[in-house]
Every structure is written in C-alpha cells, then in structure tokens.
Amino acid sequence: MNAEIKLRKAEINDRDTIWNILQQAIERRRKDGSTQWQQGYPNLNTVESDIAKGFGYVMTVDNEIAVYTALILNDEPAYSTIDGAWLSNGEFVVVHRVAVDEKFAGKGLVKILFDHIEEFTRSHGIQSVKVDTNFDNTAMLRILESKGYTYCGEVFLAGGMRKAFEKIII
Fold it and tell me: Which residues lie below 8 Å from residue 164, measured CB to CB, with a gap of 6+?
C-alpha cells in the first residue's frame, strides 16, 4: 500500500465514522458466527467514552479513517486476574476494540496498526502491549501470532473468557 498512513487520537467529530466502522465489524463478527461483540457492546456510548477519556485512536489512510482502536495505559481491571501468567508486571498498553472499515478490509491494515501501536508504546517508554480477543476471532488470532505476541492465558472480560496475549516492546 503506497499511501500515507498515520495513527492519531480520535476527536469527537470522528464519532459517527468510528461508530459506522464498529457497526460493520460487529456485523462481520456475527456473519462469521462469532459471539464477540454481539451483546450490545461496543456501542455509541463506548465510542464517546473512549474519545472523552483520550483512549480512542484512528488510523488514517491518506487522511481517511480506516481503522479504529482504543489504547489504554496500565488500566484493565480484568487483566489483574488471568488464568495463566503475563510475561511482565511493568507498564503496558492495552489494545481494545480494533475495527477496520470494510473499504479497507483485507489490506493488512491491522498488522500496520500493531506496528504503530508498538512504536507508540516504545516512544512512551512503556514495557509491553497486552491484548485479548475472543477464542473464535481467527483473523485477530492469526495477526497476533504473526506479530510475535505470546499467548499468556485467559481473562474474563465483557461477559466471557478471552484469550490474552502480550508482547514485550522494550
């Protein structure tokens, strides 16, 4: 992809675009037979809260929003209890709510997103990235494996068990 790709904080005027992207992702998960994101989460309030708290990020391709994610520093209460073990106990970036606009699906943008997240983590002097996904989200499981994330165990989040992963960055 020969385009200008940037990761930036989401702004309130991005809300409707982000919500549209999330609705597409929710529908994709449903069509894939997944239980992830099928119980009213994430929703528009989630997006508004992410933006208000400074957690929401968009990845743009030539200034068009292509991917949404939430990046949360050192704060995921569900991660304090893991059936397994994290690789580290230091500071971490949590990745939640990764969603790609259908227009950009299948172009490898989530792998590029993780490159940007890892650079963000490194530039803030943070030790690792932690992420979880549903056991049936095969696309994300493949991406995490390809990006060198280590399976650490399972966490209980959003009403179900999730596979938890970590990658040491520095």
Answer: 79, 82, 84, 86, 130, 131, 132, 151, 152, 153, 154, 155
User: 59-94, pLDDT tens digit by residue?
Assistant: 999 999 999 999 999 889 999 999 999 999 999 999
Task: Flag whether pLDDT at 168 surpasses 70.
Answer: yes
Distances (CA, A) of 139 to 1, 105, 143: 20, 11, 6
Alpha-carbon distance of 51 to 48, in angstroms, equals: 5
Query: Is the pLDDT at 40 greater than 80, yes or no?
Result: no
Q: Are strands 83-84 and 64-73 parallel, antiparallel or unpaired?
A: unpaired
Whether residue 163 contacts residue 151, with contact meaning beta carbons closer than 8 Å, is answered with yes
Q: Is the pTM of this model over 0.70?
A: yes
